[in-house]
Amino acid sequence: MRARKAGEDTDRRIGRRALLIGTAVAATGAAVLARDELARLWWRAPGVDKPRVEGAVDFRGAQWVAASDANWRRADRPDDYGIDMVIIHVTQGSFASAVKVFQDPGHGAAAHYVVRKDGHVTQMIRELDVAYHAGNRAYNERSVGIEHEGFVDRPEGFTDAMYEASAKLTAGICARYDIPVDREHVIGHVEVPGTDHTDPGKHWDWTRYMRLVKAAYTAATRTST
Prior knowledge:
Blueprint: H1 16-28, H2 31-41, E1 63-64, E2 72-73, E3 85-90, H3 95-102, E4 113-115, E5 121-123, E6 130-131, H4 137-142, E7 143-148, H5 160-177, E8 186-188, H6 206-224
Parallel strand pairs: 1-5, 3-7, 3-8, 4-7
Antiparallel strand pairs: 2-6, 4-5
Helix pairs in contact: 1-2, 5-6
């Protein structure tokens, strides 16, 4: 977890690229491709506001606590950006401190979820929106970020309750967006290109975690069929 560097992911309005796309449509008549791209961007136009339900969560049982809107970008995923990845973070601090900084507009970063040591899950950004959590714009747009209370050098902080709650959360995300449950699509922050982070660190038990995710995914998909 860290503050976003200047210019790292700050595109909030329809920009020059979108205007150029519109010009290309008029000039060349490349209808199908251009229409698809403009449809993807329509919600960025000034005055357009997609309807939301205040306090709604994507993970059943999660507590909603809104992050500052300076720490995420409004979107309509997966229609505008496909979601094919879950990124695992460790807060390098307490649960309370993570929630506090994600509410701070000066921090410049936030994840969709924060998981506490006792397994409590707080959602701070809707999955349909782009959270500034990965330090890489393309990865932000295609992923859901999950923070975990604790420190990378203190394995005792990664409790059974945390692993189990996080695994159910990740399994639910994978089921919603048809994401393969494997280490190519469930990754650590350290694996994001260009990052200077090391979380979740060498003490995060990936073998155990992925086993729990796969079991929860199987249970979730069996229930839904």
